[in-house]
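Work Package 4 report. The design task specified in the project plan requires that, given a folded chain encoded as structure tokens, an amino acid be chosen for each position. We show below one input record used in the internal validation round.
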């Protein structure tokens, strides 16, 4: 029996040499698949990381738009929840041209002419000399106080010659209620002497002559020229200065500059009455500390509206003189004055004629 037959008879199978090769190939294929899978995983990881980074960057770019939408939504919500009566803010006013300012200023003058058709100088006087002296005495006091003081003064010293020859101490005592009585005595006695010596006892009707008199400046001179001689002039007192600035006719605080700037806005024929109207308005309605804005007839023309009381009822309580139902400043007002005359000095009967002692 051959060796091959013997092995067949024992059931022994010959050794398989191909098996290890197949196993190795399979294992290599598995490793290759694993490597490929790993590479794919890294690529996927990179893609995922890139996507995440893009998503993180995207909100940053869109943030302003989202913020704008959020603010807009908040404003809309606030507007919807605001009460219906809430005031709407006025848009910023455009700069006013020179022409527009002049037109507005002249319209204010026309409106004031309708409100104060009876505007007048609020000092009692019967002639240029009395007006000149009363105007000098009105510095740093009220016209009412002057009007209560001058009747006795003019009763004793009716002419420049009389006043120039007076005893200073006696004049001081008479005008003491007006304040600064020593300085004022020196001024009125000095101007009385100048009128006697240089102008034959007459008040001159020229600006250049008036301002040379003791105690007489441009304001006083224009009061006398405009109301005693009919010569147009602008009286820049504290009221006129305040309102001219509030109404933006001027930005200056120098009376001479204000006078010149306002004179360029209005025709010369308006100067005297313009002064009376503005001063009347300043004394009665547009006060220095608390203007009665709610009772003002020219609010639509006033750039300073709102500086004072805007409630109509509260503003009405701030009105003075005839606008508030009180007496005026003159003891002898013009016939067309709608208010009540001012009371005389304490102790003097209304309507009493006061004469110097010893007079018949």
């Amino acid at each position: 029996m051959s060796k091959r037959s013997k092995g067949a008879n024992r059931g022994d199978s010959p050794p398989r040499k191909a098996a290890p090769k197949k196993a190795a190939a399979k294992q290599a294929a598995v490793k290759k698949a694993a490597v490929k899978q790993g590479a794919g995983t890294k690529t996927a990881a990179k893609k995922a990381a890139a996507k995440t980074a893009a998503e993180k960057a995207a909100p940053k770019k869109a943030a302003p738009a989202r913020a704008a939408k959020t603010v807009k939504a908040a404003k809309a919500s606030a507007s919807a929840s605001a009460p219906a009566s809430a005031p709407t803010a006025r848009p910023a006013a455009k700069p006013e041209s020179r022409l527009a300012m002049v037109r507005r200023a002249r319209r204010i003058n026309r409106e004031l002419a309708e409100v104060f058709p009876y505007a007048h100088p609020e000092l009692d006087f019967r002639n240029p000399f009395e007006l000149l002296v009363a105007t000098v005495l009105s510095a740093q006091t009220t016209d009412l106080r002057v009007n209560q003081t001058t009747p006795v003064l003019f009763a004793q010293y009716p002419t420049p010659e009389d006043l120039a020859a007076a005893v200073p101490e006696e004049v001081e005592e008479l005008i003491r209620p007006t304040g600064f009585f020593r300085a004022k005595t020196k001024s009125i006695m000095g101007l009385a002497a100048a009128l006697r010596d240089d102008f034959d006892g007459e008040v001159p009707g020229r600006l250049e002559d008036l301002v040379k008199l003791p105690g007489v400046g441009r304001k006083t001179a224009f009061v006398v020229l405009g109301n005693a001689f009919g010569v147009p002039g602008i009286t820049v007192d504290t009221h006129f200065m305040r309102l001219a600035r509030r109404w933006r006719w001027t930005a200056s605080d120098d009376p001479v500059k204000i006078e010149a700037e306002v004179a360029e806005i209005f025709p010369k024929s308006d100067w005297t009455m313009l002064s009376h109207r503005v001063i009347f308005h300043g004394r009665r309605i547009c006060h220095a500390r608390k203007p009665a804005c709610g009772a003002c007839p020219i609010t639509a023309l006033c750039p300073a509206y709102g500086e004072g009381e805007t409630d109509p009822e509260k503003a009405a309580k701030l009105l003075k003189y005839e606008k508030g139902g009180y007496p005026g400043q003159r003891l002898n007002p013009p016939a067309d004055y709608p208010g009540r005359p001012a009371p005389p000095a304490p102790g003097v009967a209304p309507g009493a004629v006061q004469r110097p002692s010893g007079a018949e």
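The radius of gyration is 49 Å. Validation will be extended to a larger panel in the next phase.
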